[in-house]
Design a protein that fits this description.
Oligomer: heterodimer
Strand content of chain A: under 5%
Strand order of the largest sheet of chain B: 1-2
Order of helices and strands of chain A: HHHHH
Number of domains of chain B: 1
Shape of chain B: globular
Distance between the termini of chain A: 60 Å
Helix content of chain B: over 70%
Structural class of chain B: mainly alpha
Order of helices and strands of chain B: HHHHHHHEEHHHHHHHHHHHHH
Strand content of chain B: under 5%
Largest sheet of chain B: 2 strands, antiparallel
Radius of gyration of chain A: 24 Å
Structural class of chain A: mainly alpha
Radius of gyration of chain B: 22 Å
Number of strands of chain A: 0
């Protein structure tokens, strides 16, 4: 309940910020009665109304049976996973697809309970295979990064 | 008669060897994707959009591929709900009720093939419905002006909330988030940059694929972390793989009834497969009465939701193809794919590109047949896939998702955006917000704003144009009805509670 209220209020604040951002949006010269500002403001306004109601009267969250309560441990894991994804995004081009996928994939497999050796084998194999499949077979260009020297 | 010849032409397109191979590959990929936890039809289809584009498939083949993947995903989801008792998504919850008991009685193969058969009949009925109604609707839709379109889209959004049942407010907020997100980027009419924060990468707006994969794949990856995976044991599929004539005959009328029901539920925006399967199951349970063994492995209990899902999926294509207004998350993704090919779905699509429309319809038939046939030799392989542990799956899903996002624009900015959207999606999911309204809102948002502005340009700013024509008036009445549905439901619930209180 309290989380839901907090979320609604946070999103409400965001709506307000976005509305302030949207205020100066005006076409330099225009031939139509409705400018670029009206639609976003309308949406933000409606959303604020909904959020306000949610903040005042939050609806109970139906929890599924197999969904355990969020504890500290899972939160840390989730933060770690997000961190890994961010590392993946930032090294994707610099290190190249294969290396960054291995760098991020192995710890990620560990997070989900794999053993070091097993994780390393699967992730290394899959990164090489996926690189070959997408870059070579399916023409989706992926960066080689550091491994660039190996080619030619 | 015209439609029949068009349909023949469509089969000509779909039966070309190239497209047959495409459809076969699509169904196989789709089945595997649907089997895996964390990937459903929505992200399965979204992942393939950039790839289909990169492969340089012609538009009709790309669309056939996506439709085949979609059906395959639905089928894959069925495998996990029947063999593991884990519904892959909301619409297959009803399938587990009788499918899993059937599998435990040693009828796993029968249950799977019967569900595929039911879904085929559902799709068949819906396709017949589509052949009958879609051209009529398309002809009628030509009379729609921007004002009518705007009202229609308002209706689609409101219908989502009205039909969603238990959480109309959250559905509504989610749809508004999507509607708002569509405004990010350069405004096509005036050239003003909106909400880009001076970033070049956002000038083009948020990429649809990035939004879908972030919302669905990344948030699912995070959700999987908290579920301690015990390695579910799948029921072994042994014995007969195909249903026999008697079993098919026993569910035939169920198939017909639920097919019709599913089709109409599918055409209505917002209702979709989840509601159709639930209503179908409940109706059949009531019709069977005490004689049925519903919940204990009754074939009718399996056939009813599956037929309805198959029919509603095809039914959902009707508003998408004729009006350009998607009614479900997956059709929203398909519209996203079409726009990549510069094809605008709408009434004119039927006249200008009949090959695409009818080829798609014909390939739905073929893909469904393929699934039934594939089921027999492949089921053992598929059940093997269910045993793959999460630690091996999740990194691979994450990597493939990143490839799909990177394939769109080849910028790492999109990867960061995907992670950000994923976190947002995770939070929304934890707070019990439905996610597919965001997608629908995102797709409808651009169209909605354009049509609103066009309509008001015509009337020179006079708001009256929005309710001046009989069509728009009619749709407004429907909007009001839809808006009052949740209120009515709450009121009824309260009345029931009060009565229960009085009794106690």
């Amino acid at each position: 309940m309290i989380l839901q209220r907090l979320f609604a209020l946070a999103l409400l604040a965001l709506c307000a910020v976005l509305a302030v951002m949207a205020w100066p949006y005006q076409a330099a010269f225009s031939y139509e009665p409705v400018g670029p500002r009206a639609y976003p403001l309308l949406m933000l306004g409606l959303m604020s109304l909904g959020l306000l109601y949610l903040a005042i009267r939050p609806t109970p969250i139906v929890r599924k049976d197999d969904e355990p309560e969020l504890d500290r441990e899972s939160l840390i894991k989730i933060a770690a996973c997000v961190g890994l994804l961010l590392v993946f995004a930032s090294t994707f081009e610099a290190l190249g697809f294969i290396l960054s996928a291995i760098l991020v994939g192995v710890p990620m497999a560990r997070l989900y309970g794999g053993r070091w050796l097993h994780s390393a084998l699967v992730v290394v194999g899959m990164s090489l295979f996926l690189y070959w499949l997408f870059d070579r077979v399916m023409d989706v260009p992926l960066p080689l990064g550091l491994l660039d020297v190996l080619e030619n | 008669m015209d439609t029949l010849s068009y349909l023949g032409q469509g089969f000509g397109v779909a039966l070309s060897p190239y497209n047959l191979v495409t459809a076969l590959t699509g169904t196989l990929i789709g089945t595997v994707v649907g089997l895996l936890p964390g990937l459903g039809p929505i992200n399965g289809v979204a992942l393939l959009i950039p790839i289909a584009f990169a492969l340089g498939l012609p538009p009709e083949s790309a669309l056939i591929l996506l439709a085949a993947v979609y059906l395959g995903c639905e089928y894959g989801g069925r495998i996990s709900s029947i063999l593991l008792n884990i519904p892959g998504e909301a619409s297959t919850v009803m399938t587990t009720l009788d499918g899993y008991p059937m599998a435990r009685q040693g009828l796993a193969g029968v249950a799977l093939s019967l569900s595929a058969w039911s879904s085929f009949i559902g799709a068949f009925i819906a396709t017949c419905g589509m052949v009958l109604f879609a051209p009529l609707l398309a002809k009628w839709a030509i009379a729609f002006g921007p004002a009518e379109y705007f009202v229609l889209m308002v209706f689609a959004i409101v219908a989502l909330g009205g039909m969603a049942g238990d959480k109309p407010l959250k559905t509504f907020i989610a749809a508004l988030i999507g509607l708002f997100l569509s405004a990010v980027g350069i405004d096509a009419n005036s050239g003003v940059y909106r909400f880009t924060g001076d970033s070049v990468h956002l000038a083009d707006g948020i990429q649809f694929v990035v939004l879908v994969l972030g919302l669905f794949s990344i948030s699912e990856i995070l959700l999987l972390l908290e579920k301690t995976h015990h390695g579910h044991v799948a029921v072994k599929a042994t014995g007969r793989m195909l249903f026999n004539f008697k079993e098919a005959a026993s569910v035939f009328f169920v198939n017909i009834r639920c097919g019709l029901l599913g089709f109409f539920m599918g055409v209505l925006p917002g209702a979709g497969a989840t509601l159709a399967s639930a209503v179908a199951y409940m109706t059949e349970k009531r019709i069977a009465g005490d004689k049925g063994k519903f919940g204990k492995g009754d074939a009718r209990g399996l056939a009813a939701p599956e037929t309805a899902i198959g029919a509603s999926c095809c039914g959902a294509l009707v508003p998408m193809l004729t009006l350009g207004v998607p009614g479900s998350g997956t059709t929203a993704v398909m519209i996203g794919a079409l726009t990549l090919y510069n094809i605008t779905p709408g009434p004119l699509l039927f006249e200008q590109q009949p090959d695409i429309v009818w080829g798609l319809i014909a390939s739905l038939f073929i893909a469904n047949l393929m699934l039934i046939i594939l089921n027999v030799p492949m089921i053992r392989v598929f059940t093997r896939i269910l045993a793959v542990p999460n630690w091996a799956l999740v990194p691979v899903i994450a990597i493939i998702t990143a490839i799909g996002v990177y394939a769109v624009h080849a910028t790492t900015f999109d990867l960061f955006l995907m992670v950000g959207i994923g976190i947002m999606g995770y939070i929304l999911r934890k707070l019990d917000f439905p996610l597919s309204p965001i997608l629908l809102g995102f797709i409808l948002g651009g169209l909605m704003e354009q049509n609103l502005r066009r309509a008001l340009s015509i009337s020179n700013g006079e708001l009256g144009i929005l309710w001046s024509s009989p069509i728009s008036m009619g749709v407004w009445v429907l909007v009001v009805c839809m808006l009052s549905l949740p209120l009515l439901r709450i009121w009824r619930k309260r009345a029931l509670q009060r009565r229960a209180m009085a009794d106690a």
